[in-house]
Design a protein that fits this description.
The protein is mostly helical. It has seven helices and no strands. The protein has a domain of 95 residues.
Length: 145
């Protein structure tokens, strides 16, 4: 789904589709545009998709758990191009201070208390019979006339 068709949605429907508010989406586009302008000034190739479509593609990947193959077919790209685009958008937004998470040291220094729940999910081997041993005994049958 391209951004041209999503642009006309109301704010509630836009958030249901993308998972972010329209203001956050516009802020993300601004960050990506700045980075892309710097990248293009160094002589990079033009992209087939607009920045809005690149961001929408990444949000679809993160929100709907779609495979890169399905995304690439929706946007008319190769699977590897879809992967590279999603990774570039994710990495670019993570590096920006507005969307980065605090590090472990910052969390340890804060006065906030966290409640932690641990879940034990250990694996146990499946009991299978050994090779060469059979539980059932083969029965020889005689030819019936």
């Amino acid at each position: 789904m391209k951004y041209n068709s999503v642009r006309t949605l109301r704010d509630g429907a836009f958030r249901r589709l993308t998972g972010v508010k329209r203001a956050t989406f516009e802020k993300m586009i601004g960050i990506l545009r700045e980075v892309q302008i710097k990248k293009k000034s160094k002589g990079a190739r033009n992209n087939k998709l607009s920045i809005e479509d690149m961001l929408l593609m990444s949000l679809e990947y993160l929100r709907e758990y779609r495979t890169y193959f399905h995304i690439s077919q929706s946007y008319g790209l190769s699977e590897s191009s879809a992967y590279k685009t999603v990774r570039w958008v994710e990495d670019t937004l993570i590096k920006h201070p507005d969307f980065s998470l605090p590090g472990r040291k910052v969390l340890l220094k804060s006065d906030m208390e966290y409640e932690v729940v641990l879940i034990d999910a250990t694996e146990t081997p499946i009991e299978r019979q050994k090779k060469g041993r059979s539980i059932s005994i083969p029965v020889k049958t005689r030819g019936i006339p």
